[in-house]
Design goal:
Elements (H helix, E strand, L loop, with lengths): L9 E11 L2 E10 L2 E9 L1 H8 L8 E11 L4 E9 L4 E8 L1 H10 L11 H5 L5 E2 L6 H21 L9 H13 L21 H10 L6 H6 L2 E4 L14 E9 L4 H10 L5 E4 L1 H6 L1 H9 L3 E4 L12 H16 L8 E2 L8 H9 L3 E2 L14 H10 L5 E6 L2 H16 L3 E5 L1
Parallel strand pairs: 1-7, 8-15, 9-10, 9-14, 9-15, 10-11, 12-13
Antiparallel strand pairs: 1-2, 1-4, 2-3, 4-5, 5-6
Helix pairs in contact: 1-4, 4-6, 8-14, 11-12, 13-14
Length: 420
C-alpha cells in the first residue's frame, strides 16, 4: 500500500521575529522530507505582541506548532511553540489571530516554500532574533498588556480544562517533592509546560503600576501532571499511591488527535506507544501528540511477538521505529512497550542497548474487546486506580468514554504521570 502524501511531514522553526517600517515579520525555516527552506512572512500585530511577550529565545531553537485552537473562555484562538536546546525543551502558548492560522495553513503547502541550495544552512538554523525597533512602542505595549493581563487572569481563574489551581492540586505539589516515587530519581523529575504568557520588560514596568499578581510558571505546571523517569531495572512499574498513568497502544491512528485533544482539555498527558508501520501513514498525528506535550514511545515496527525473533531482527525492528520517530519528534525515544507484553532477557538487553526502558502495565481494562464504553468505565470503578498504569488502545469505543474515565480518576484526587 503506497504511503499517503501527508507522510511528507513538516516542521516549522522560528528564526527571527521583527518589527520594521513595513510591519511585523517573522522568518521561518521549513523542513519537509529532509529538505530545508527559509521564508520571510508578515504576521499580524496581535500575534506578534503575544509571541514577543514570551521569554527570551536567544541561543535556542524554536519550533512552531502547526495547529491552533479556539478558547471559548477567552473567545480567542491560541497556538504554541517549543523552545529547545540540548538539555531541555519548554512549550509555551500564545494568543493568535485568524490571520496567523491562515498563515500556518499556507506554510503547510509545499509550493509556498523556496528551496535553499545550501544544506549546511539547514543543519544549523540561526538563533531567533527579535527586532529592537520601538516605533509606537508605548501604544503597542499597552495593547499587548491588555491581552497579557487577560491571559494571567484566565490562568488564575481556570479550575478545569488546560489548567488546575485547586487546593488538592497545590497540596500534591509539596507531597510529590517530598518523595513522589520509589525509584530514587526525584531530582530528575520535570513537570511539563502549560500555557503561560509573560510580559516583556517594557510591559512589566507598566504592569507594576497595575499591581498584577505574579503567576509562578513552574508552580502552575506541577499542578497538572508529572514526568517520571523509569529506572530501567524492571519490566513493570507500580506508581506510588496517589498517582495514575494512562497509556495508549497501537497508534498512531485516525483517533490520535482526538485523544490528545481530550487529554489536553483536561490538563493532563499520557504515554503513546506507537507502531512503526502506522507512523508512516500518520506522521502528522505523531507530531501533534509530541508538540502537545504527550510522551511518545516505541511499540515495535509491526506488532509481532518479538520473543520469537532473532537478536538481529529485534535490533532492526526497534531501531527502525526509533529512526521513523526521530524524523518527527523533538526528544529521543526512551520507552518501549513489547507487543502482547512478551519480553525476555535477550529482548530487554537489546532495548537497553538502544537506550530505552521496557514499560508494561498493572491495570488492563481490555478495551480492545469491550462491548460498550460503559464496560470500560466499569473496570475503572471496580478496581483501585491509585498507583495504576492503565493499558488502553486507540479505539473509537475508548475515545467515547475517555472524558468520563478522566473525570472519575480526578474525582479520586489522583495525580497523573507520564514516563521517560
Amino acid at each position: 500500500m503506497p504511503v499517503e502524501e501527508k507522510s511528507a511531514a513538516l516542521m516549522i522553526e522560528l528564526l527571527s521575529l521583527e518589527h520594521g517600517q513595513d510591519g511585523y515579520r517573522m522568518e521561518v525555516g521549513l523542513t519537509r522530507s529532509g529538505a530545508f527552506t527559509r521564508q520571510m512572512v508578515h504576521i499580524d500585530e496581535l500575534t506578534y505582541l503575544q509571541m514577543n511577550a514570551l521569554p527570551p529565545f536567544e541561543g535556542q531553537r524554536i519550533r512552531l506548532s502547526l495547529y491552533a485552537k479556539w478558547d471559548p473562555f477567552r473567545q480567542t484562538h491560541f497556538s504554541s511553540l517549543i523552545k529547545m536546546n540540548r538539555t531541555f525543551s519548554e512549550m509555551l502558548y500564545f494568543a493568535c489571530s485568524e490571520e496567523y492560522i491562515s498563515l500556518l495553513h499556507r506554510l503547510k503547502q509545499p509550493e509556498e516554500a523556496a528551496v535553499i541550495p545550501s544544506p549546511a544552512v539547514a543543519a544549523v538554523p540561526k538563533p531567533v532574533k527579535r527586532s529592537s525597533s520601538r516605533a509606537g512602542a508605548r501604544s503597542i505595549a499597552l495593547r499587548g498588556l491588555v491581552l497579557s493581563l487577560l491571559l494571567i487572569v484566565f490562568l488564575l481563574r481556570m479550575d478545569d480544562g488546560l489548567f488546575s489551581d485547586s487546593a488538592e492540586a497545590k497540596v500534591e505539589v509539596t507531597q510529590s517533592e517530598a518523595g513522589a516515587h520509589s525509584s530514587g530519581q526525584d531530582d530528575n523529575l520535570s513537570a511539563p509546560y502549560a500555557p503561560v504568557v509573560r510580559l516583556t520588560s517594557l510591559e512589566s514596568s507598566i504592569a507594576e503600576e497595575a499591581t498584577v499578581p505574579v503567576v509562578d510558571e513552574k508552580e502552575v505546571h506541577k499542578l497538572l501532571y508529572e514526568e517520571i523517569e523509569l529506572g530501567g531495572d524492571s519490566y513493570e512499574y507500580a506508581l506510588p499511591k496517589g498517582y495514575v498513568a494512562l497509556s495508549f497502544d497501537d497508534g498512531p491512528s485516525k483517533y490520535t488527535k482526538e485523544i490528545v485533544d481530550i487529554l489536553q482539555a483536561e490538563g493532563i498527558a499520557a504515554n503513546f506507544l506507537f507502531i512503526g508501520q502506522n507512523v508512516l501513514h500518520y506522521p502528522e498525528e505523531v507530531i501533534y501528540a509530541d508538540t502537545q506535550g504527550m510522551a511518545v514511545g516505541n511499540h515495535s515496527w509491526d506488532h509481532s511477538v518479538m520473543t520469537r525473533n532473532s537478536g538481529e531482527e529485534n535490533r532492526n525492528n526497534l531501531s527502525q521505529v526509533n529512526h521513523a520517530l526521530a524524523q518527527l519528534i523533538q526528544s529521543p525515544v526512551t520507552v518501549f512497550r513489547p507487543p502482547y507484553g512478551a519480553v525476555n532477557e535477550e529482548l530487554a538487553a537489546e532495548v537497553g542497548r538502544q537506550h530505552m526502558k521496557v514499560l508494561l502495565w498493572n491495570r488492563d481494562p481490555e478495551d480492545w474487546k469491550a462491548d460498550s464504553p460503559e464496560e470500560i468505565l466499569h473496570y475503572f470503578r471496580a478496581t483501585d486506580p491509585s498507583g495504576g498504569i492503565y493499558l488502553l488502545h486507540e479505539k473509537s469505543i475508548t475515545v467515547k468514554i475517555l472524558p468520563e474515565i478522566i473525570q472519575y480518576l480526578k474525582s479520586k484526587g489522583l495525580k497523573f504521570a507520564i514516563f521517560k
